[in-house]
Automatic annotation (TrEMBL):
It holds the Pfam family DUF2914. InterPro entries: DUF2914. It comes from Polaribacter cellanae. The chain crosses the membrane at residues 23-43, 49-69, 81-104, 110-127, 139-161, 167-189, 201-220. This is DUF2914 domain-containing protein. Signal peptide: none annotated. It comes from the Bacteria. Residues 288-355 form the DUF2914 domain. Keywords: Membrane, Transmembrane, Transmembrane helix.
Amino acid sequence: MDNKLLKYKDSKFGLFLIRRKKYAPLLFFIAGFTWDSLTLGRIDRLYDNVILCTYMTLLTISIYFYNLVDSEKWKNKFIQLYGKYLPLAVQFFLGGLSSAYVIYFSRSVSISKTASFFLILIFLLIANELFKKRISNRYLQFCAYFFVNFTFLSFFVPVILKEMNTNIFIISGILSLASTLLLIVLVYRSSASTRIEIVKWKMLGMILAIYILINTFYYFRLIPPVPLALDKGLVAHSIAKKNGKYIVTYEVDDWYIFWRDHKVDFYRKSNQKVYVFTSIFAPTDLKKKIYHVWKWYNPKTEKWKTLDKIGFEIVGGRDSGYRGYSYKSNLINGEWKVDVITEEGLVLGVVDFNININKPNLKPHIITREF
Protein backbone atom coordinates (compact mmCIF):
# COMPACT_ATOMS: atom_id res chain seq x y z
CA MET A 1 0.00 0.00 0.00
CA ASP A 2 2.92 2.36 0.83
CA ASN A 3 4.39 1.78 -2.65
CA LYS A 4 1.05 2.63 -4.20
CA LEU A 5 0.89 5.82 -2.16
CA LEU A 6 4.40 6.84 -3.24
CA LYS A 7 3.52 6.09 -6.85
CA TYR A 8 0.41 8.23 -6.56
CA LYS A 9 2.36 11.14 -5.02
CA ASP A 10 4.85 10.99 -7.89
CA SER A 11 2.08 11.10 -10.49
CA LYS A 12 1.29 14.31 -12.37
CA PHE A 13 -2.00 14.74 -10.51
CA GLY A 14 -0.33 14.12 -7.14
CA LEU A 15 2.44 16.63 -7.87
CA PHE A 16 -0.15 19.14 -9.09
CA LEU A 17 -2.03 18.90 -5.79
CA ILE A 18 1.14 19.16 -3.71
CA ARG A 19 2.39 22.25 -5.55
CA ARG A 20 -1.01 23.93 -5.34
CA LYS A 21 -1.99 22.63 -1.93
CA LYS A 22 -2.87 26.13 -0.73
CA TYR A 23 -5.43 26.70 -3.49
CA ALA A 24 -6.58 23.12 -4.12
CA PRO A 25 -9.79 23.29 -2.00
CA LEU A 26 -10.85 26.51 -3.69
CA LEU A 27 -10.11 25.07 -7.15
CA PHE A 28 -12.14 21.94 -6.41
CA PHE A 29 -15.02 24.01 -5.07
CA ILE A 30 -15.04 26.21 -8.19
CA ALA A 31 -14.73 23.11 -10.35
CA GLY A 32 -17.94 21.73 -8.86
CA PHE A 33 -19.74 25.02 -9.54
CA THR A 34 -18.43 25.32 -13.11
CA TRP A 35 -19.23 21.72 -14.00
CA ASP A 36 -22.85 22.09 -12.88
CA SER A 37 -23.21 25.39 -14.72
CA LEU A 38 -22.26 23.64 -17.95
CA THR A 39 -24.22 20.41 -17.47
CA LEU A 40 -27.37 21.09 -15.43
CA GLY A 41 -30.51 21.91 -17.39
CA ARG A 42 -34.02 21.11 -16.20
CA ILE A 43 -34.58 20.54 -12.51
CA ASP A 44 -36.91 17.60 -13.25
CA ARG A 45 -34.59 15.97 -15.80
CA LEU A 46 -33.39 12.47 -14.94
CA TYR A 47 -29.76 13.42 -15.54
CA ASP A 48 -29.98 16.37 -13.12
CA ASN A 49 -31.68 14.26 -10.45
CA VAL A 50 -29.10 11.48 -10.74
CA ILE A 51 -26.18 13.94 -10.59
CA LEU A 52 -27.52 15.83 -7.58
CA CYS A 53 -28.45 12.66 -5.71
CA THR A 54 -24.96 11.33 -6.42
CA TYR A 55 -23.40 14.55 -5.11
CA MET A 56 -25.47 14.40 -1.93
CA THR A 57 -24.62 10.73 -1.39
CA LEU A 58 -20.89 11.15 -2.03
CA LEU A 59 -20.75 14.27 0.15
CA THR A 60 -22.27 12.25 2.98
CA ILE A 61 -19.81 9.40 2.48
CA SER A 62 -16.84 11.78 2.20
CA ILE A 63 -17.69 13.58 5.44
CA TYR A 64 -18.29 10.27 7.24
CA PHE A 65 -14.95 8.72 6.27
CA TYR A 66 -13.03 11.98 6.65
CA ASN A 67 -13.97 11.95 10.32
CA LEU A 68 -12.81 8.35 10.70
CA VAL A 69 -9.35 8.77 9.16
CA ASP A 70 -7.62 9.04 12.53
CA SER A 71 -9.24 5.87 13.85
CA GLU A 72 -6.99 2.88 14.60
CA LYS A 73 -9.45 0.71 12.70
CA TRP A 74 -8.33 2.27 9.39
CA LYS A 75 -4.60 2.38 10.11
CA ASN A 76 -2.54 1.70 6.95
CA LYS A 77 -5.74 1.07 5.00
CA PHE A 78 -6.97 2.79 1.87
CA ILE A 79 -9.14 5.38 3.65
CA GLN A 80 -6.36 6.51 5.99
CA LEU A 81 -3.67 6.56 3.31
CA TYR A 82 -5.75 8.65 0.94
CA GLY A 83 -7.74 10.49 3.61
CA LYS A 84 -5.84 13.71 2.96
CA TYR A 85 -7.75 14.01 -0.32
CA LEU A 86 -11.19 13.68 1.26
CA PRO A 87 -11.38 17.45 2.05
CA LEU A 88 -11.04 18.08 -1.68
CA ALA A 89 -13.96 15.74 -2.33
CA VAL A 90 -16.01 17.54 0.33
CA GLN A 91 -15.19 20.87 -1.33
CA PHE A 92 -16.14 19.58 -4.78
CA PHE A 93 -19.52 18.16 -3.72
CA LEU A 94 -20.34 21.21 -1.61
CA GLY A 95 -19.56 23.34 -4.66
CA GLY A 96 -21.69 21.15 -6.90
CA LEU A 97 -24.74 21.20 -4.63
CA SER A 98 -24.47 24.91 -3.84
CA SER A 99 -24.06 25.83 -7.49
CA ALA A 100 -27.08 23.74 -8.48
CA TYR A 101 -29.32 25.74 -6.19
CA VAL A 102 -27.80 29.03 -7.34
CA ILE A 103 -28.30 28.01 -10.99
CA TYR A 104 -31.96 27.06 -10.53
CA PHE A 105 -32.57 30.09 -8.34
CA SER A 106 -30.97 32.57 -10.76
CA ARG A 107 -33.34 31.53 -13.54
CA SER A 108 -35.89 33.88 -11.99
CA VAL A 109 -36.33 37.26 -13.64
CA SER A 110 -35.95 39.10 -10.33
CA ILE A 111 -34.18 38.21 -7.11
CA SER A 112 -34.92 41.46 -5.29
CA LYS A 113 -37.47 39.85 -2.99
CA THR A 114 -35.25 36.94 -2.07
CA ALA A 115 -31.84 38.60 -2.22
CA SER A 116 -31.05 37.88 1.43
CA PHE A 117 -31.30 34.11 0.96
CA PHE A 118 -29.35 34.36 -2.28
CA LEU A 119 -26.58 36.21 -0.44
CA ILE A 120 -26.30 33.29 1.98
CA LEU A 121 -25.69 30.98 -0.97
CA ILE A 122 -23.09 33.34 -2.39
CA PHE A 123 -21.45 33.52 1.03
CA LEU A 124 -21.28 29.73 1.09
CA LEU A 125 -19.46 29.80 -2.23
CA ILE A 126 -17.01 32.52 -1.19
CA ALA A 127 -16.49 31.11 2.30
CA ASN A 128 -14.61 28.25 0.72
CA GLU A 129 -11.50 30.37 1.30
CA LEU A 130 -12.09 29.81 5.00
CA PHE A 131 -13.07 26.15 4.56
CA LYS A 132 -9.64 25.20 3.27
CA LYS A 133 -8.16 25.97 6.70
CA ARG A 134 -11.12 24.99 8.83
CA ILE A 135 -12.67 22.05 7.03
CA SER A 136 -11.48 19.83 9.87
CA ASN A 137 -13.80 21.71 12.22
CA ARG A 138 -16.72 19.34 12.82
CA TYR A 139 -19.15 22.14 13.60
CA LEU A 140 -18.43 23.82 10.28
CA GLN A 141 -18.66 20.53 8.38
CA PHE A 142 -22.04 19.51 9.72
CA CYS A 143 -23.57 22.99 9.55
CA ALA A 144 -22.56 23.37 5.89
CA TYR A 145 -23.80 19.85 5.22
CA PHE A 146 -27.18 20.53 6.83
CA PHE A 147 -27.65 23.77 4.89
CA VAL A 148 -26.99 22.23 1.46
CA ASN A 149 -29.02 19.16 2.46
CA PHE A 150 -32.02 21.29 3.40
CA THR A 151 -31.83 23.47 0.28
CA PHE A 152 -31.41 20.40 -1.93
CA LEU A 153 -34.43 18.57 -0.49
CA SER A 154 -36.55 21.74 -0.63
CA PHE A 155 -36.63 21.49 -4.43
CA PHE A 156 -35.95 17.77 -4.89
CA VAL A 157 -38.94 16.55 -2.85
CA PRO A 158 -41.48 18.70 -4.79
CA VAL A 159 -40.04 17.37 -8.06
CA ILE A 160 -40.50 13.77 -6.91
CA LEU A 161 -43.97 14.26 -5.37
CA LYS A 162 -45.08 16.64 -8.17
CA GLU A 163 -46.60 18.92 -5.58
CA MET A 164 -45.45 22.13 -3.96
CA ASN A 165 -46.88 23.73 -0.82
CA THR A 166 -46.04 24.54 2.78
CA ASN A 167 -46.57 20.95 3.94
CA ILE A 168 -44.06 19.70 1.35
CA PHE A 169 -41.53 22.28 2.56
CA ILE A 170 -42.03 21.10 6.15
CA ILE A 171 -41.52 17.48 5.08
CA SER A 172 -38.30 18.47 3.27
CA GLY A 173 -37.03 20.20 6.38
CA ILE A 174 -37.80 17.26 8.65
CA LEU A 175 -36.09 14.83 6.25
CA SER A 176 -32.97 16.99 6.06
CA LEU A 177 -32.87 17.46 9.83
CA ALA A 178 -33.30 13.73 10.50
CA SER A 179 -30.66 12.66 7.95
CA THR A 180 -28.14 15.22 9.22
CA LEU A 181 -28.60 14.20 12.85
CA LEU A 182 -28.26 10.55 11.83
CA LEU A 183 -24.93 11.30 10.13
CA ILE A 184 -23.71 13.18 13.20
CA VAL A 185 -24.69 10.30 15.50
CA LEU A 186 -22.92 7.74 13.28
CA VAL A 187 -19.74 9.80 13.17
CA TYR A 188 -19.92 10.53 16.90
CA ARG A 189 -20.18 6.85 17.78
CA SER A 190 -17.43 5.77 15.38
CA SER A 191 -14.84 8.51 15.92
CA ALA A 192 -13.08 9.09 19.25
CA SER A 193 -11.70 12.45 18.10
CA THR A 194 -15.22 13.60 17.21
CA ARG A 195 -16.45 12.72 20.70
CA ILE A 196 -13.61 14.82 22.12
CA GLU A 197 -14.17 17.82 19.85
CA ILE A 198 -17.96 18.00 19.69
CA VAL A 199 -20.11 19.19 22.57
CA LYS A 200 -23.43 17.50 21.86
CA TRP A 201 -25.72 20.29 23.04
CA LYS A 202 -23.67 22.88 21.10
CA MET A 203 -23.79 20.86 17.88
CA LEU A 204 -27.53 20.27 18.24
CA GLY A 205 -28.10 23.95 18.98
CA MET A 206 -26.26 25.06 15.84
CA ILE A 207 -28.19 22.64 13.62
CA LEU A 208 -31.53 23.68 15.13
CA ALA A 209 -30.56 27.36 14.71
CA ILE A 210 -30.02 26.82 10.97
CA TYR A 211 -33.30 24.87 10.80
CA ILE A 212 -35.19 27.73 12.47
CA LEU A 213 -33.41 30.31 10.29
CA ILE A 214 -34.41 28.62 7.01
CA ASN A 215 -38.00 28.19 8.21
CA THR A 216 -38.05 31.86 9.23
CA PHE A 217 -36.91 32.80 5.74
CA TYR A 218 -39.73 30.69 4.33
CA TYR A 219 -42.33 32.22 6.69
CA PHE A 220 -41.39 35.74 5.62
CA ARG A 221 -41.35 34.62 1.96
CA LEU A 222 -37.65 35.27 1.50
CA ILE A 223 -36.85 31.90 -0.07
CA PRO A 224 -37.30 31.53 -3.84
CA PRO A 225 -40.03 28.99 -4.69
CA VAL A 226 -37.71 26.54 -6.44
CA PRO A 227 -38.45 24.29 -8.40
CA LEU A 228 -40.69 26.98 -9.93
CA ALA A 229 -38.83 29.68 -11.87
CA LEU A 230 -39.90 32.77 -13.77
CA ASP A 231 -38.18 32.38 -17.13
CA LYS A 232 -39.64 35.45 -18.79
CA GLY A 233 -41.44 38.55 -17.52
CA LEU A 234 -42.13 41.68 -19.54
CA VAL A 235 -44.59 44.53 -20.01
CA ALA A 236 -46.19 44.68 -23.47
CA HIS A 237 -48.42 46.80 -25.73
CA SER A 238 -50.41 43.85 -27.04
CA ILE A 239 -50.65 40.07 -26.79
CA ALA A 240 -52.46 37.70 -29.14
CA LYS A 241 -52.62 33.92 -29.25
CA LYS A 242 -52.36 32.17 -32.62
CA ASN A 243 -51.78 28.48 -33.38
CA GLY A 244 -50.63 27.82 -29.84
CA LYS A 245 -48.16 30.70 -29.94
CA TYR A 246 -48.29 33.97 -28.01
CA ILE A 247 -47.61 36.98 -30.23
CA VAL A 248 -46.20 39.68 -27.93
CA THR A 249 -45.50 43.27 -28.97
CA TYR A 250 -43.35 45.31 -26.60
CA GLU A 251 -40.66 47.98 -26.36
CA VAL A 252 -36.98 47.15 -25.92
CA ASP A 253 -34.08 49.21 -24.64
CA ASP A 254 -30.80 49.99 -26.33
CA TRP A 255 -28.64 46.98 -27.17
CA TYR A 256 -26.17 47.59 -24.32
CA ILE A 257 -28.92 47.19 -21.68
CA PHE A 258 -28.78 43.41 -22.06
CA TRP A 259 -29.97 42.40 -18.59
CA ARG A 260 -33.62 43.39 -19.18
CA ASP A 261 -36.05 42.17 -21.84
CA HIS A 262 -38.41 45.15 -21.89
CA LYS A 263 -37.97 48.90 -21.60
CA VAL A 264 -38.81 50.23 -18.15
CA ASP A 265 -40.35 53.48 -19.41
CA PHE A 266 -43.68 52.44 -20.94
CA TYR A 267 -45.39 55.10 -23.08
CA ARG A 268 -49.06 54.36 -23.61
CA LYS A 269 -51.84 56.08 -25.48
CA SER A 270 -55.06 57.10 -23.82
CA ASN A 271 -57.27 54.10 -22.90
CA GLN A 272 -54.59 51.68 -24.10
CA LYS A 273 -54.36 48.38 -22.23
CA VAL A 274 -51.09 47.46 -20.55
CA TYR A 275 -50.15 43.76 -20.61
CA VAL A 276 -47.74 41.77 -18.49
CA PHE A 277 -46.55 38.49 -20.02
CA THR A 278 -44.83 35.74 -18.05
CA SER A 279 -43.54 32.27 -18.72
CA ILE A 280 -43.03 30.12 -15.63
CA PHE A 281 -41.05 26.91 -15.57
CA ALA A 282 -42.44 24.09 -13.46
CA PRO A 283 -41.51 20.38 -13.31
CA THR A 284 -43.56 17.96 -15.41
CA ASP A 285 -47.11 17.35 -14.10
CA LEU A 286 -46.76 19.88 -11.28
CA LYS A 287 -49.83 22.13 -11.11
CA LYS A 288 -49.81 25.41 -9.23
CA LYS A 289 -51.93 28.53 -8.79
CA ILE A 290 -50.01 31.68 -9.79
CA TYR A 291 -51.01 35.31 -9.31
CA HIS A 292 -50.13 38.60 -11.00
CA VAL A 293 -50.37 41.29 -8.32
CA TRP A 294 -50.55 44.78 -9.85
CA LYS A 295 -49.13 47.52 -7.64
CA TRP A 296 -48.77 51.29 -8.01
CA TYR A 297 -46.35 53.41 -5.99
CA ASN A 298 -48.17 56.24 -4.21
CA PRO A 299 -45.68 59.15 -3.94
CA LYS A 300 -47.77 60.82 -1.22
CA THR A 301 -47.76 57.88 1.18
CA GLU A 302 -44.47 56.51 -0.22
CA LYS A 303 -45.98 53.02 -0.21
CA TRP A 304 -46.98 50.46 -2.82
CA LYS A 305 -50.73 50.13 -3.28
CA THR A 306 -52.19 46.84 -4.54
CA LEU A 307 -54.78 47.53 -7.23
CA ASP A 308 -55.48 44.05 -8.62
CA LYS A 309 -54.66 40.38 -8.12
CA ILE A 310 -55.21 38.13 -11.14
CA GLY A 311 -54.71 34.37 -10.80
CA PHE A 312 -54.35 31.43 -13.15
CA GLU A 313 -53.17 27.84 -12.85
CA ILE A 314 -49.99 26.64 -14.49
CA VAL A 315 -49.08 23.10 -15.55
CA GLY A 316 -45.42 22.10 -15.63
CA GLY A 317 -43.49 20.29 -18.33
CA ARG A 318 -42.83 22.85 -21.06
CA ASP A 319 -39.12 23.68 -21.54
CA SER A 320 -39.73 27.40 -22.02
CA GLY A 321 -42.26 27.61 -19.21
CA TYR A 322 -46.03 27.88 -18.93
CA ARG A 323 -47.12 31.09 -20.63
CA GLY A 324 -49.75 33.44 -19.31
CA TYR A 325 -50.60 37.11 -19.08
CA SER A 326 -52.79 39.70 -17.41
CA TYR A 327 -53.71 43.25 -18.36
CA LYS A 328 -55.21 46.45 -17.03
CA SER A 329 -56.70 49.58 -18.57
CA ASN A 330 -56.52 53.25 -17.61
CA LEU A 331 -53.27 53.04 -15.70
CA ILE A 332 -52.14 56.38 -14.29
CA ASN A 333 -48.66 57.84 -14.52
CA GLY A 334 -46.02 56.65 -12.11
CA GLU A 335 -44.09 53.61 -10.95
CA TRP A 336 -45.75 50.23 -11.38
CA LYS A 337 -44.78 46.65 -10.70
CA VAL A 338 -46.38 43.25 -11.01
CA ASP A 339 -45.37 40.69 -8.39
CA VAL A 340 -45.56 37.14 -9.73
CA ILE A 341 -46.33 34.99 -6.69
CA THR A 342 -47.58 31.56 -5.66
CA GLU A 343 -50.76 31.05 -3.65
CA GLU A 344 -48.56 30.86 -0.52
CA GLY A 345 -47.21 34.32 -1.34
CA LEU A 346 -43.72 33.18 -2.40
CA VAL A 347 -42.25 35.56 -4.97
CA LEU A 348 -41.25 34.13 -8.35
CA GLY A 349 -40.21 37.50 -9.71
CA VAL A 350 -41.16 41.13 -10.23
CA VAL A 351 -41.94 42.92 -13.49
CA ASP A 352 -41.43 46.65 -12.91
CA PHE A 353 -42.09 49.57 -15.26
CA ASN A 354 -42.95 53.28 -15.36
CA ILE A 355 -46.17 54.45 -17.01
CA ASN A 356 -46.01 57.68 -19.01
CA ILE A 357 -48.94 58.92 -21.10
CA ASN A 358 -46.93 61.79 -22.61
CA LYS A 359 -45.56 61.42 -26.11
CA PRO A 360 -41.95 60.20 -26.05
CA ASN A 361 -39.18 62.45 -27.38
CA LEU A 362 -37.69 59.60 -29.38
CA LYS A 363 -39.45 56.98 -31.45
CA PRO A 364 -39.77 53.83 -29.31
CA HIS A 365 -38.12 50.63 -30.50
CA ILE A 366 -41.06 48.20 -30.68
CA ILE A 367 -40.65 44.55 -31.60
CA THR A 368 -42.97 41.56 -31.95
CA ARG A 369 -41.93 38.07 -30.81
CA GLU A 370 -43.50 34.66 -30.62
CA PHE A 371 -43.39 32.72 -27.33
